[in-house]
Amino acid sequence: MTSAAVPEHPWLLPGSLTAAPGRIRRTARDWVVDILFLLLSLGWVAAATLDAASPDPSFAAPLPERWMVPLDGAAGLLCCVLLWWRRRWPVALTLATLPLSAVSVAAAVPLLVLYFTVVVHRRTAVALAVTAAGLVTNFVFGLARPDLTMSYWAATAWGVVISLCVLAWGMFVRARRQLIVSLRERAERAETEQRLRVAQARQVERTRIAREMHDVLAHRISLLSLHAGALEFRPDAPPEEVARAAGVIRSSAHSALEDLREVIGVLRAEVPAEAAPDRPQPTLADLPTLLGESRSAGVRVEASDRVTGADRVPAAVGRSAYRIVQEGLTNARKHAAGARVAVELSGGPGEGLRVEVRNRWPVGGAGTDIPGTGTGLVGVAERVSLAGGHLEYGRDDAGDFRLAAWLPWPA
After folding, report:
1. Which pLDDT tens digit goes with each residue over 349-386?
2. What are the structural domains, with CATH classification, of the chain?
3. Whole-model pTM?
4. In whole angstroms, what is the distance from residue 348 CA to residue 301 CA?
């Protein structure tokens, strides 16, 4: 159905109109219905005409003159022919043939079909207006074609009942078609929304993976850079120290490649992100391993753990604390090489978890040439915000760079 045809045919089923306004494209169902209506109307015209021409009409109201019988039959045939265009101009054809309903019996059935088409395919106000006009001609019909078997008012009442029955049937059909179209649109909209939700979930999951990989890769690559820099500036180091640094470089590079291969595989996958199993995420219990890796790389790390009930910390809170410390150590290696780093954790259930990473502000050329995008702290701030906590970072009054966060820890 085209947009140009929608206002004119609001209740037609999809596919009953062509792209050009006013042109009909009948479906197989439309062909069957139209042919049945045409045969029914032709049968009525033949029966009514033959009965009116018989010496003793049984169901057709008698005509005042016998020569009017062929005219009545011709009027019925004309209405049958007009049924072929009832889907295109239902209101115009109904109004044009409405005067025949005041005098013709043979045209009664095709006129009812036209009237039914108006009720189904037009607004209620239009259908009621056509119904009112038809009721007026019904009163005239009782005078022009009086019935010999019943009184005027009884015959007129039957005409009113038939008109109201056709009106109720047509409105039921229209409401049913409207319901079907509404359900179909709702199903299509739900399917579209489901696809959007899947796409959004996939994008959110990929963003989460990218944030996690930024934290992990930045940490490992900074270790690589630190050990490689030590080997570059100390070519005369003892073989044991060179071997240890080379082992750390090899291990860190292997882990970085594994992480990178995993995230690329997930991001390339077409299946929903939730279908892929999550890799084990670090928690607060993995913090000593993280500190040990930094110490093995030559970073002077002092840790203070005053957390009460650390074994009961929620996994999400512990993971956020781990990422905060990881980002703080990575930034210290990148921007304040050789500086002492202090890591402090405190808090407990009900009072929250406080995490603080502090190092001296880099002076002059301190720091390494490890490239960075500056998005690490932005990602940490987002993570803390989503967890319901708050984050502070920057230079304090003592001249140190301070990264501090508070995370909620329910009692």
Report:
1. 889 999 999 998 875 544 544 555 556 787 788 888 87
2. 28-149 (no CATH), 283-411 (3.30.565.10)
3. 0.45
4. 23
